Amino acid sequence: MLPGPDKVIECPACKALSRVFTLRSGNTLDARRWTDGKMIAPMLPIPPAITRCRKCGCYFWLSDAKEIGQIFPSQWRSETNEVPESWKATELARDLSECESLEAISRGMARNRDQELHLRVSAWWAGNDAFRFLGNGAATKMQAAPARSPEASANLVRLLELLAIDDPEQRLMKAEILRELGRYEEALRALQADFPSAHKALAALIRDLAGQRDPVVREVLD
C-alpha cells in the first residue's frame, strides 16, 4: 500500500476543515469478507463517501465539499511551513454509524437511488459490525435473528425494494437480507437462479446458512 496525499476539505455548511486520505496504490492482501458483501482490507482502506462534520453536525457528501489543499506524505515530516499547521491538526473524515446513516436519509441526504442505496447498505453493514467477529463455529451460532431496531428492520425491507433482482451481486445481497431477517424460504428462492462463476461460492454459502436457519452475518472463508 502506498499512501497518496491527504485532501483538506471544508464542510459545506460551516467551513470547518477535515482530511480525507487517498491511496496511490493498494491491494486486497489479508482482506476479510462477509456474507453481507462488506470487505475489510488493511492494505486497501476506502475513504467515506459521506461523513458528518465534527463541528456543526451536518452531514455532507465528500463530493460536495470544497478541497482547499493537500498534504503530501513527505510534508508531514517536513519542518518547513509548506502547509499550515491547522491543516495537519484536522481529523480524518469518518464513516457514519448505523443510526447516523439512517438519520442522514431522514434529513434528505439521499438525493437519488444510488445515494439512498449507499446509505442504506452502510447502515446495514454498520449494524452487522456487532456480529461480524462472532466466528463461524457451531458453538457461536445464534438460533434467532439478532435484535434490530424498528428503523434498522425497516431499512432492510427498503433495501429489498431497491436492490435489483437481475444483477447477480445485488440478488445475493437480497438473499442475504432475507436470511438475516429470518425469511429463509424466500432467501432460498432468491438463490435458485444460476449465478456467474465469480458469485457461485458465496451463493452456495448463503444457501447453506439459510438451510441451517442461521440468521447471522458470517465471514466468507477461503
Structure, explained:
The protein has helices at 73-77, 85-88, 98-106, 113-128, 150-162, 168-180, 184-190, 197-211; strands spanning 2-3, 6-10, 17-20, 23-25, 32-34, 39-40, 50-52, 59-61, 66-71, 219-220. By secondary structure, it is an alpha+beta fold. It has two domains: 2-88, no CATH class; 112-220, no CATH class. The strands form four sheets. The protein has a three-stranded antiparallel β-sheet with strand order 3-2-9. Strands 6-5-10 form a three-stranded antiparallel β-sheet, with no helix packed on it. Helix 3 packs antiparallel against helix 4 (113-128) and helix 6 (168-180) packs antiparallel against helix 7 (184-190). The longest helix is centred in the middle third of the chain and has 16 residues, at 113-128. It starts with a strand and ends with a strand.
